[in-house]
């Protein structure tokens, strides 16, 4: 749809589509924030029908899932919205924290002192610029920023 009919007669289409067996392509994009974007390119075989409006709707639905998944991956590493990347110890604490465990339970799970766990939690809060677990959870669920 986006390309004029003569594009399909051109060298680029022949070399980069037809010669490799692609008859059509579709691209969808979404932003996670100002720095991170997802671009998804899907190609169809030359024997398949061209992409349709319902195909684009399906890909939009897929992008919602990919956006959520990538956001969770980035958040779990302290990226995307944290002021600094999380350490591996902070990532372990963060996952238990978001599962609802208390500081004492997290310390037991990770075989560390409650004080060490508390220090990690305070560091996590500082990196995500939040003051408590409920705000961190809201941030994680995409309800903030």
Helix content: 40-55%
Name the structural class. alpha+beta
Shape: rod-shaped
pLDDT averaged residue by residue = 85
Strand order of the largest sheet: 1-2
Number of domains: 2
Spans with pLDDT under 50 lasting ≥5 residues? none
Beta content comes to 5-15%
Number of E strands = 2
Query: In DSSP terms, counting alpha (H) and pi (I) runs of 4 or more, how many helices?
Result: 6
Describe the main β-sheet briefly: 2 strands, antiparallel
**Distance N terminus to C terminus?**
35 Å
Order of helices and strands: HEEHHHHH
Radius of gyration: 22 Å
Task: Describe the structure concisely.
By secondary structure, this protein is of the alpha+beta class. The chain folds into two domains: 67 residues, no CATH class; 53 residues, Arc Repressor Mutant, subunit A (Orthogonal Bundle).
Describe this structure in words.
With 145 residues, this protein is an alpha+beta fold. It folds into 2 domains: 67 residues, no CATH class; 53 residues, Arc Repressor Mutant, subunit A (Orthogonal Bundle). Helices cover 49% and strands 13% of the residues. The chain contains 6 helices and 2 strands, in the order H-E-E-H-H-H-H-H. The longest helix has 24 residues. The model has no long low-confidence stretch (mean pLDDT 85).
């Amino acid at each position: 749809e986006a390309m004029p009919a003569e594009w399909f007669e051109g060298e680029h289409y022949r070399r980069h589509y037809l010669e490799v067996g692609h008859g059509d392509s579709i691209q969808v994009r979404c932003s996670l924030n100002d720095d991170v974007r997802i671009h998804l390119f899907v190609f169809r075989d030359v024997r398949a029908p061209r992409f349709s409006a319902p195909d684009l709707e399906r890909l939009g639905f897929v992008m919602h899932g990919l956006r959520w998944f990538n956001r969770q991956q980035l958040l779990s590493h302290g990226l995307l919205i944290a002021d600094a990347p999380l350490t591996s110890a902070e990532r372990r604490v963060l996952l238990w924290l978001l599962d609802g465990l208390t500081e004492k339970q997290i310390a037991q799970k990770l075989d560390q002192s409650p004080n060490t766990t508390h220090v990690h939690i305070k560091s996590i809060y500082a990196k995500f610029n939040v003051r408590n677990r409920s705000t961190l959870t809201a941030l994680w669920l995409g309800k903030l920023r």
